[in-house]
Amino acid sequence: MAKLILVPTPIGNLEDITLRAIRILKEADCIYAEDTRVTRKLLNHLEIDQQIFPFHAHNEHKVLQQVVERISGMNQAVLVSDAGTPAISDPGFLLVRECIREGIEVECLPGPAALIPGLVASGFPCDRFVFEGFLPHKKGRQTRLKALIEEERTIVLYESPHRLIRCLAQIEEFLGSDRQVAVARELSKVHEEFVRGTATEVKTHFEKHPPKGEIVLLIEGKK
Ligand code: SAM
Fold first, then answer.
1. pLDDT tens for residues 194-208?
2. CB under 6 Å to ligand 1: residues?
3. Whether domain 3-108 has CATH 3.40.640.10
């Protein structure tokens, strides 16, 4: 029976690939990847010689049926993204949904995803949380932020360094300047950093030290 396996890959530190992920990548009939060059580098590092086919945000809708048909004729196909768990703010959801509709078994290996280490080390409650992914850049951004005003669970966002200060200013405006936040930057990488404090304190910090790299933004829920 055909199976699609989603394989999480490191979000920085290459040691964070699991033994099972390596075995599944070796055994796969076919690997679909967000950016084949990024995945080729990882496979070279792991000394895995496999063919890689593109499956990314730009071709997701177009190639969906064709990819599902190919997977249905295989034993085991793998989907990876550039980093972390496929389908988490990455391509993959449409493929998972379509495979399930077509009776193809779907499995996701446990593994790296930036939101989890960011959340757990933020110091905010993590028994209940809400993952908002990336907020829209323009249209709908304020509506999404306003919808979080009464949220009592810890809020997890992905944010680009270019928009971080603006986002912190919007948190001050909509959720209050004394709302506790944490910025988890460059998780698992050499320059990993956590900056914790009120929205105003953290914004002031990044105004003095312009943010770089990849960021998970955590916001404590309303008390
Ligand atoms: N699929 C990935 C996952 O499972 O986390 C997320 C992919 S999304 C396109 C990329 C975003 O994830 C980045 O912009 C950043 O917000 C977050 N991210 C990825 N790696 C990170 C890291 N090492 N440190 C902090 N945030 C990271």
1. 999 999 999 999 999
2. 11-12, 81, 83-85, 88-90, 113-115, 158-160, 184, 186-189, 214-216
3. no
